[in-house]
Specification:
- By secondary structure, this protein is of the alpha+beta class.
- It has a single domain, classed as Dimeric alpha+beta barrel (Alpha-Beta Plaits, 2-Layer Sandwich).
- The protein has two helices and six strands.
- Strands 2-5-1-6 form a four-stranded antiparallel beta sheet.
- Helix 1 packs antiparallel against helix 2.
- This is YCII-related domain-containing protein.
């Protein structure tokens, strides 16, 4: 089963410690080598060119970022393939534990969602 992990947190302008990126890179390399990680990516701050296109009442509305009313923003994603939901949960917990250990003041969420349609027939 494919799973997407969506990581979000408060966008407060504080930079993550370099060690956090190093540890995430190590974990990513292990997951890629094991064949579980299929894709990943981080997102730049919303002040660096974000926009929203909304559909409401049959009309589209464009809003340029940053979005002051937003408390948490999506910071990155990864796509994995796991045999069981339990394996996916364990991987998400492992990823979030890196944040807890290295950047304990950060508060965020890793949402794990089953997927369809990515690289499947």
């Amino acid at each position: 089963m494919l799973y997407m992990f969506l990581v979000s947190g408060v966008e407060d302008g504080k930079q993550p410690p370099a060690e956090l990126f190093e540890e995430i890179e190590k974990l990513s390399e292990q997951e890629i080598a094991a064949g579980r990680m299929k894709a990943r990516g981080g997102l730049l701050p919303t002040a660096m060119g974000s926009a929203r296109i909304e559909s409401r009442s049959g009309k589209l509305k464009l809003t340029d970022g940053p979005f002051a009313e937003t408390k948490e923003v999506l910071g990155g994603f990864s796509i994995f393939e796991f045999a069981t939901r339990e394996e996916a949960i364990a991987a998400a917990e492992s990823f979030m534990d890196i944040h807890r250990r290295i950047w304990p003041e950060w508060e965020g969420v890793c949402e794990m969602r089953p997927m369809f349609g990515f690289g499947t027939s």
